[in-house]
Amino acid sequence: MKIGLLIAITRELEAFLQSGEKRTEEIVAGRTVYKTRMEGHEIYAVCSGCGEIDAASATMLLIVKYGCELILNFGVTGALDRSLKVEDLFVAEKAWHYDFDITAFGAAKVGQYEEYPDEFIPLDADLISLVTEKIPGIRKISVASADKFVENRETKLKLAESGCGLCEMELAAIARVCERSGVKCLSIKCISDAFDGTGADFEKNVKHSAEKAFAAIREVLKALA
């Protein structure tokens, strides 16, 4: 299977680069695309950069240029729930693009796109079931996604009212582009900064949390073989 691997930042990408497979590289549309084989699959990996715009364009590149049939995203994330801890591992069930707001034109809720019944963009249920079956201890979760690194506790509490347990900066774009393109999408996240965490905690924990998320991605690839 042709699989696109989308990673937001270089420090997360390092978990993939250190995996040991032989790979080739090419630069397309200003991004380095890494080609390799993992667990029997043809892999195209790209580091998108932070935020929804960069994530959307990188996702489309993987789908249109390389014909990827599945997009896998892994990375680190912040917690919106006080009970969640650094290095807790999750599979995203749905994403809320919380800074998308067209309620002035009659949309029912902040973050709601007109073709969805509510404010959440769903991810593939069959893949999520596969992950929860194959990876012990991983949990399903809803993710708040927008172009903001959230440190403020009051903001976190407000976001949590939606039912989301995590916040990050790319998944809404990835899920939206995949859904509109008819391509399945899966995202595995590992906490780098807990509810009381800051940017400093992110810097401290990003390496180990990214490695744990990537290890889960490898298990997914094995299960798909």
CATH class annotation: Alpha Beta
Q: Quick one: how many beta strands?
A: 10
Q: From the 3D coordinates, which CATH architecture would you assign?
A: 3-Layer(aba) Sandwich
Strand order across the biggest sheet? Answer: 5-9-8-6-10
CATH topology: Rossmann fold
- Report how far the terminal alpha carbons are from each other: 8 Å
Sheet of most strands: 5 strands, mixed, barrel
Tally of individual helices? 6
- Helix-and-strand structural type: alpha/beta
Instruction: Specify the helix fraction band.
Output: 25-40%
**Mean pLDDT over the residues:** 95
User: Which consecutive residue ranges, at least 5 long each, have pLDDT under 50?
Assistant: none
How many domains is the backbone divided into? 1
Question: Which range does the strand content fall in?
Answer: 25-35%
- Indicate the radius of gyration in whole angstroms: 16 Å
Task: Describe the 3D structure.
- By secondary structure, the chain is α/β, with parallel strands linked by helices.
- The chain has one domain: 3-Layer(aba) Sandwich (Rossmann fold).
- Helix content is 34%, strand content 31%.
- It is built from six helices and ten strands, in the order E-H-E-E-E-H-E-E-E-H-E-H-E-H-E-H.
- A five-stranded mixed beta barrel has the order 5-9-8-6-10, surrounded by five helices.
- Strand 2 and strand 3 form a beta hairpin.
- Helix 1 packs parallel to helix 6 and helix 2 packs parallel to helix 5.
- The chain is globular.
- The N and C termini lie close together (8 Å).
